[in-house]
Amino acid sequence: MQYDPIKRILGNAFNKKPFLRKLFYNLLDLLLLRAWHIHKELKVWAKTANKSPIIFDAGMGFGQYSYFMSSMFPTSKIVAVDVKEEQVEDCTRFFTSIDRTNVEFSVDDLTKFKKHNLFDLALSVDVMEHIEEDVLVFKNICESLKPGGMLLISTPSDQGGSDVHDSGESSFIEEHVRDGYNINEIREKILSAGFSKVECRYSYGWPGKISWRISMKYPILMLGTSKLFFVILPFYYLLFFPIAYILNWLDTAINHTTGTGLIVKAWK
What we know:
The chain has helices at 4-13, 18-31, 33-46, 64-72, 85-97, 134-144, 183-192, 206-225, 229-253, and strands at residues 54-58, 77-82, 103-107, 119-125, 145-156, 197-203, 261-267. By secondary structure, the protein is an alpha/beta fold.
């Protein structure tokens, strides 16, 4: 199914007031397992980072990670880009309304966006599965990082990522150009792009797979069927959120030998 129309509906529902947008970000942070893993890695990185890093949010979407990082590093500069103009305009309006001036948004294509030795950190969350020319993007990001800078990626793996488990199945998210990366494949691609060191680990192990279904897949399918499910959704989450919360915590606490997601860290 197409995920973008559902995202658009959700974004519009929470865009009416700044406090609603902040509530939306908090809900995403609690429900989305990838946010748990990304926040964990950002906190580890922050221990050795300078107090005013320059950060690149590569494909910022709703802007929730730019918001999180700008709160974590109030004196940082964050450059956030997305190929979709409506997302950029939406984030610009919200961040301006809350006077969050250390984040700059622009419409850019990651296959063309390139700076020289500018960023301390680049973040790419659920973006690379949408881009055919992935090695070119890795090269551009490597060029844009300072020596020693880090790229942090969350993306589906080939172990059932995008909810694909057999060769005959198609991705749950139609906008994906690939169902998921093989862990060795993405390591080799990133090294070929000029990075000196890569670490990969699986996310969305057995707890994450269950959590994703009850907290994301089934609600999205319901919303895709009828907007009337917006009325039911709060009651659904009241029932299932405590279960999803425990499963998300377990997924971040366990070292997985396989999983439907990948967390990748690479250094220039």
